[in-house]
Amino acid sequence: MSIEACAEIVQRSDPERFAALMAAPVGDRATLAVLYAFNAELARAPWASKEPMIAEMRLQWWRDVIEAEAQGPAQPHEVASPLGKLIRTKALPLDLLDGMAAARQWDIYRDPHADEAGLWAYLEATGGALMQVSALALGAAASSGPSALALGTGQALANYLRAVPKLEELGRVPLLDGTRAGVAALARAGLLRLAEARQPLPRGAALAAYLTRPVLEMAVRDPALVAEGKLVPTEFTRRKRLLWQSLTGHY
After folding, report:
1. 18: left (phi over 0), alpha (psi -120 to 50) or beta
2. From residue 63, how far is each of 58, 59, 74 by CA, in Å?
3. Which residue of 95, 96, 101, 143 is surrounded by the most CB atoms within 10 Å?
4. Helices (H), 128-179
5. In the 8-state DSSP scheme, what is residue 124?
6. In Å, what is the CA distance from 221 to each residue of 34, 225, 227, 231, 251?
7. Would the CA dihedral through 54, 55, 56, 62 be positive or negative?
8. How far apart are the two ends of the chain, measured CA to CA in Å?
9. DSSP letter assigned to residue 143
10. CATH code where residue 79 lies
């Protein structure tokens, strides 16, 4: 039930977010490690079984845990227990946490998003909500919510575009318009989301989005990189962006 266990989960499942975690202020790392481990567990749950019923049960378990932990410590668990402590001590919004789990139901099934609004709702409820919760847990004012949502949603889109080939391989239909023009338009919309993140956020939370802008800009310049699975910034870009954002706070 240690913070170290949560950090190890993040390191194994999400190396880029782990790099941001390690670059965050020392005092922020424990909080972020728990939230990022929770996010990793939610992201993994729909794919842990080929049986939709079992995947649904895993997500429902997390939804039940959120509700139970808000009332007090429940059965010990390496992620749920420290998450519950955060919920209680930081007064984290249960609707956002529950929505993160509920949104992952889309990953279980093969149906495409109903429309573009459905895709954006998914991105907002996953990456957007995680950024909101992270910012609040690090002391951001409630008024920062729209900026955190915008930044996290842009980050979620960048990650989603990079996952398109894998999602298609698994039988999903991630894009309603997979043409070059459609992909470029979607990436441009993601950059507009970044422009909406005008209010400063806690640096530790915002660091998770350090690759968002370069990835979306790559998709605008060459949309074919998405289908080819080549929407991958160079190691130099990764290091430069993480250092630059950690020093300036800009994204």
Report:
1. alpha
2. 9, 6, 13
3. 101
4. 129-137, 145-169
5. I
6. 36, 9, 14, 11, 19
7. positive
8. 33
9. G
10. 1.10.600.10
- Chain centroid to Cα 108, Å, comes to 17
Cβ neighbours around 52 below 10 Å, total? 13
**Residue for token pair 């390690």:** 22
Residue appearing with tokens 């209010």:
199
- Is residue 46 within 8 A of residue 55, CB to CB? The reply is yes
Place of tokens 């080929």: 50
DSSP one-letter code for 208 = G
Whether 193 and 149 have beta carbons less than 8 Å apart is answered as: no
Residue 13 tokens read as 């499942």
Total domains in the fold of the chain: 1
Q: What domain range includes position 244?
A: 3-248
Per-residue pLDDT of the chain (251 residues; tens, 9 = 90+): 589 999 999 999 999 999 999 999 999 999 999 999 999 999 999 998 889 999 999 999 999 999 999 999 988 999 999 999 999 999 999 999 999 999 999 999 999 999 999 999 999 999 999 999 999 999 999 999 999 999 999 999 999 999 999 999 999 999 999 999 999 999 999 999 999 998 899 999 999 999 999 999 999 999 999 999 999 999 999 999 999 999 988 88
Q: Which among 28, 46, 35, 27 has a CA at the least distance from the CA of 10?
A: 35
Q: Burial of 75 by CB count in 10 Å (0-12 exposed, 13-18 middle, 19+ buried)?
A: exposed
Looking from the CA of 31 toward its CB, the CA atoms found within 13 Å total 23
Q: Is the dihedral of CA 49, 52, 53, 58 positive or negative?
A: positive
